[in-house]
Amino acid sequence: MKVLLISNDAGGYAHHVEAPDNTTVQQMFERHVGAFHAESYLIRVNRQPAAADQLLRDGDRVSFTPQKIEGAA
Amino acid sequence: MYLRDIGPTEIGGFGISNADDLLLIEDIQLVRQTCSVTSVEFDDASVADFFDSQVDAGRQPEQFARVWVHTHPGASPSPSQTDEETFSRCFGGVDWCVMHILAEEGNTYTRARFNVGPGTDRRLRCRTVLDCEFPATDHEKWFEEYCENVTVFDPFASRRSAIDLYDDADWWQQPPTAADLWSDRLFEVGR
């Protein structure tokens, strides 16, 4: 299956990637971002927050975006 | 500078880069954020919505998610510990990123970080390019964007956060926006 992956990590993704059937959100995250710091990201599927064990479907849009961007003087 | 001066608080956004020159910033996009005189905090869902909308517009993350811009209230643009933590935590996994801080009196701090190879940080000199078209200049739209995205949090007015205030309000009421709280000043600036 193909999913649209949006992530700013490394060189950045905003394109379709191939994934095996029954891939979970967590597996997709670990494959493209790494097995750590998941808590630093807002993970959404089709613009909705997703659980780690959610199964992805062909055509899904998955985004990993940074959380808690804050500045202070 | 328009966005820095329009309200009484810090403000932040993402720089939108020229597709052929990623360090040439052609626009600054706000996301929903809660701002005080000394802080700015982006709304996580709004950041994700921003990514979605930019991808839908045909941009790649390196064009819209690498240059983090925010202001400081005083004359010092030097990054705070919070700024540094955000820069490392939120942008530590990307190939390169830039933190740009605009303070009063036009003082700026710009630093690029390259996370490939051994990794390095480098201060950049910031300058305004005046010899090319800059279609994003639209004060009216900037004003609307500001009012739509910025929620002012005044810690001296209440010990509760703006979210708490919203929870107590009727469900159809929107949280107080910058325009609600600072309307006189905003209209003077936006005129």
List the helices and strands and how they pair.
The complex is a heterodimer of chains A (73) and B (191).
Chain A lengths: L1 E6 L5 E6 L6 H8 L8 E5 L2 E2 L11 E6 L3 E3 L1
Parallel strand pairs in A: 1-5
Antiparallel strand pairs in A: 1-2, 3-4, 3-5
Chain B lengths: L1 H5 L5 E6 L7 E5 L3 E4 L2 E4 L1 H13 L4 H4 L2 E5 L9 H11 L4 E7 L5 E7 L5 E4 L15 H11 E3 L9 H7 L9 H4 L1 H8 L1
Parallel strand pairs in B: 3-9, 5-6
Antiparallel strand pairs in B: 1-2, 1-5, 3-4, 6-7, 7-8
* Topology-level CATH name of chain B: Cytidine Deaminase, domain 2
Helix content of chain B: 25-40%
Give average pLDDT of chain A, whole number.
Answer: 91
So, CATH architecture of chain B? 3-Layer(aba) Sandwich
Helix and strand succession of chain B? Answer: HEEEEHHEHEEEHEHHH
**Class based on secondary structure composition and strand pairing of chain B:** alpha+beta
Superfamily (CATH H level) name of chain A:
Beta-grasp domain
Main β sheet profile of chain B: 6 strands, mixed
State the name of the first-level CATH class of chain A: Alpha Beta
Oligomeric form? heterodimer
Domain count of chain B: the total is 1
Key terms:
A: 73 residues, 6 strands, B: 191 residues, 3-stranded mixed β-sheet, 9 strands, 24% strand, globular
How would you sum up this structure in a few lines?
The complex is a heterodimer of chains A (about 70) and B (about 190). With about 70 residues, chain A is mainly beta.
What does this structure look like?
Chain B: InterPro entries: JAB_dom_prok. Chain B: Residues 42-107 form the JAB domain. Chain B: This is JAB domain-containing protein. Chain B: GO terms for molecular function: metal ion binding; metallopeptidase activity. The complex is a heterodimer of chains A (73) and B (191). Chain A is built from 1 helix and 6 strands. With 73 residues, chain A is mainly beta. Chain A has a single domain (2-66), classed as Beta-grasp domain (Ubiquitin-like (UB roll), Roll), CATH 3.10.20. Chain A has a 5-stranded mixed beta sheet with strand order 2-1-5-3-4, with no helix packed on it. In chain A, a hairpin with a 5-residue loop joins strand 1 (2-7) and strand 2 (13-18). The radius of gyration of chain A is 12 Å and the shape is globular. The model of chain A has no long low-confidence stretch (mean pLDDT 91). With 191 residues, chain B is an alpha+beta fold. In chain B, helix 4 links the parallel strand 5 (67-71) and strand 6 (96-102). The relative contact order of chain B is 0.17. The longest helix of chain B is centred in the first third of the chain and has 13 residues, at 44-56. In chain B, 33% of the residues lie in helices and 24% in strands. The model of chain B is unreliable at 159-163 (pLDDT under 50). The interface between A and B is medium-sized, with 28 and 39 residues. Strand 6 (70-72) of chain A pairs antiparallel with strand 4 of chain B.
